[in-house]
Amino acid sequence: MTATFDPPVLAPAASPPPTRDLFVDVLRLFAIALVVAQHWLMPVIDYSDGHLVTSNALTVPGGWVVTWISQVMPLIFFAGGAATAMSLRRRSTGADRAWVAARLLRLAIPVLGLAALWLPLPHLMLALGMPAEPVSVGARLVGALLWFLGAYVLITLLSPALVRLADALRGRELIGFAAVAIAVDVLRFSFGAPDVLGYLNVIAVWGAVHQVGIHYGHGRLRGIRGLRAVALGAFGFAAAALAVGFGPYPLSMVGLPGDPMSNMNPPTAVLLALAVGQLGLALAVRDQIAAWAARPRVAAVVGRLSGSAMTVYLWHTPALVLVAGVAVIALGRDTPDPLSAEWFDGVTAWVAVLGLVLAVAMTVFSRLERVRLPRLVATDVGAGRLLTAGLLVGAGVLALTIGGFRPETLWDATGPLVAVASITAGVLLLLASAARRPGSRWSSVARTGKVAS
To answer: What sections of the protein cross the membrane (predicted)?
Structure first.
């Protein structure tokens, strides 16, 4: 008799799989809300004598503790993996390429909306007499958070293979992901390997968390609940604490000024332990969250907000840049000392104004998340076309992550104009697949301005 090993936490896949999981939707919205709150509350800005100085409120003593909860990228990648599993499970194997193409379009089109404003805006600001340094810094920051989309484009291209890997190995593959992440860190920190090697962990770390989400989406984590989930969470946070205490990792789970290195850029293996801690706590209250989210009014709000999550992520930093520019440059109001009485006095108005600007951006740009796409089928998208389009989108997003929309780099080979052209080319390559299909209604866009579905 041949013995087989199944990891005890991974139950057989649920049948049939759910088509929607409100727990996953709430978890994603919670994570994005924490991302927004952290980015809006942590900047410390001073502008004097034409020079802009930026710092971080989390550098206050003990501020690193906040990052163990506010570093929620593990939750976002987990939610993405769960959604991927539930979506792909409803499709035939032959429809995988069409699914990937549609997902790439959903990621890329909202970025083009961001670029439509931020390619010309820095130049307009300079023409109106704004100082060059703050404009350049702000335009760079607008693109900085697009790193997530670059990583997600790569994982999206690999998603069908990752789903099949999860079905074949049922959790054993997670050992391989973790081993790669740990090996990369050992090579970097013990043997002096270049930091560029660390970017393998974009797949090893975030791919592992995404893979856990795939297993959740297939119903294999339903045994992790109650005390078992609490114990798993405690184990994860304890492992992270040991790694920080005895390893090379800084206390903060995000990059902070003064730290010798960042746990985020590139990602380190300690984030895997943090992910276990956060997911354990989340799964411990899954039933309560799901029951609350199932209330009709709550479900309606969750559904509406889920349809604008990408817009919130893309536009909360531009909102910060614009409001901070007016407050600091135009009105001369530097950031008070973090956590001081003056800081607390102004934080409500600060967040309210930021929220208003973000609400305007959502009103204008959230429709790009819901643009009607053509019905792509397996024969529409060849593997080579799909890979080329994905690489074009990914390369463009990576360039914007590094340099943003800085006006002084507009015409550079890796500048914003070339980056946006690369993303646009990837989108057009995917849309051209549908246009070539006999009987496609995609050509009606030219007449109506709307994409047939």
So the answer is: 65-88, 100-121, 141-162, 174-191, 197-217, 229-249, 269-285, 312-331, 343-365, 386-405, 417-435
Q: What is the 3-state secondary structure (H, E, C) of the chain?
A: CCCCCCCCCCCCCCCCCCCCCHHHHHHHHHHHHHHHHHHHHCEEEEEECCEEEEEEHHHCCCCHHHHHHHCCHHHHHHHHHHHHHHHHCCCCHHHHHHHHHHHHHHHHHHHHHHHHHHCCHHHHHHHCCCCHHHHHHHHHHHHHCCHHHHHHHHHHHHHHHHHHHHHHHCCHHHHHHHHHHHHHHHHHHHHCCCHHHHHHHHHHHHHHHHHHHHHHHCCCCCCCCHHHHHHHHHHHHHHHHHHHHHCCCCCCCCCCCCCCCCCECCECCHHHHHHHHHHHHHHHCHHHHHHHHCCHHHHHHHHHHHCCHHHHHHHHHHHHHHHHHHHHHHCCCCCCCCCCHHHHHHHHHHHHHHHHHHHHHHHHHHHHHHCCCCCCCCCCCCHHHHHHHHHHHHHHHHHHHHHCCCHHHCCCCCCHHHHHHHHHHHHHHHHHHHHHCCCCCHHHHHHHCCCCC
* 43-53 average pLDDT score: 82
Indicate the residue type of 87: S
* 249-269 confidence digits (pLDDT tens): 999 998 888 888 899 989 999
Residues 6+ away with beta carbon under 8 Å from 293: 22, 23, 25, 26, 299, 302
* Rounded Cα gap, residues 220 and 206, in angstroms: 19
Q: Is the pLDDT of residue 424 over 50?
A: yes
How far from chain centre, in Å, is Cα 59?
Answer: 24
The encoded tokens of residue 266 equal: 């590139």
How far is 76 from 56, CA to CA, in rounded Å?
Answer: 23
Q: Which amino acid is at 79?
A: A
Q: What is the pLDDT of residue 215?
A: 96
Q: Of 222, 208, 215, 191, give the one whose Cα is nearest residue 273.
A: 208
The closest alpha carbon to 380, from 98, 157, 87, belongs to 98
The amino acid sitting at 98 is A
From the list 318, 237, 228, the residue with the least C-alpha distance to 8 is 228
Predicted confidence (pLDDT) per residue in 362-378, tens digit: 999 999 988 887 766 55
Listed in sequence order, the residues at least 6 apart from 296 whose beta carbon sits closer than 8 Å to its beta carbon are none
Residues with Cβ within 8 Å of 153's Cβ and at least 6 positions away in sequence, in order, are: 104, 107, 108, 390, 393, 394, 397
Q: What is the residue-averaged pLDDT of the chain?
A: 88
Rounded mean pLDDT, 6-14? 49
Q: How many CB atoms lie within 10 A of CB 227?
A: 8
Between the alpha carbon of residue 415 and those of residues 246, 322, 411, the distances in Å are 41, 21, 6
